[in-house]
UniProtKB/TrEMBL annotation:
GO molecular function, one term: acyltransferase activity, transferring groups other than amino-acyl groups
Highest taxon of source: Bacteria
N-acetyltransferase domain residues: 5-143
SUPFAM superfamilies named in the record: Acyl-CoA N-acyltransferases (Nat)
InterPro entries tied to this protein: Acyl_CoA_acyltransferase, GNAT_dom
Any one Pfam family match given in the protein's UniProt record, by short name: Acetyltransf_10
Organism: Salinicoccus kekensis
Protein name per UniProt: ElaA protein
Amino acid sequence: MWHVKKYDELELDELEEILSLRQDTFILEQESFFRDIDGRDQDALHVFKKEDDRIKAYCRMEDEDDHTYISRVIVNPAYRGQGFGREIFRYGTELAKERHPGKIIRITAMSYLLDFYKSFDYEPISEEYDIAGHNHIDMELTP
């Protein structure tokens, strides 16, 4: 089941699971030492697929002045290889279009996922750059 919640609508168990998934994947697994808890969660929408009381996939959506920003796209390691990455990103993109019609949607993508995001019609808008030892590129989907 899909969930779209503001920060103050999240159950404490959901918040803990989201932060744990982000820490386990971004910080520990990918060894990307950056400040994941960045003060932006309180103003963001938290989008996730939850079944059997487990979050299978998650992303964060922020509404900026001239664009919508999708970030922290993650699939629970226990459910990888089952299409949940495609599902969460498609759902997040469609939700952004629905809630913010006419706005550009931006992402910061790990460079090795360039073709994945291009398959959703996102296009690069920057050169590659380093974040915590990993190459990234900014991409956007124009309306």
